[in-house]
Amino acid sequence: MNNYLIPANSKKSMLIFGLFNQVDLIIFCSGAGATLLLLLILPVEQLLTAIIAITPGLVCGFLVLPIPNYHNVRTVIKSAYTFFTSRQKFIWKGWCFLDGKDEK
To answer: Do 74 and 64 meet the contact criterion of CB atoms below 8 Å apart?
Structure first.
């Protein structure tokens, strides 16, 4: 019957573990490494220093967190930044015959 089915996850085969690209893994590994380094350096007996020590891992983990309709949170932040900082100019190309020009 000529019915073709395209799998919804066809792009996932291009990603590492089906979720991450190389930049995402670099960001996450650098945050995890910084967290491990801070846990070794700082005295984590106090709550404030423990929070400071785990902050890089939490922030980097949040940035690479996958969300629906986008790749991850980092992509959403990048899209919002380009939307708000780029020039928004919408040209009217509607159904009008003259495209808004006056007839003389």
So the answer is: yes
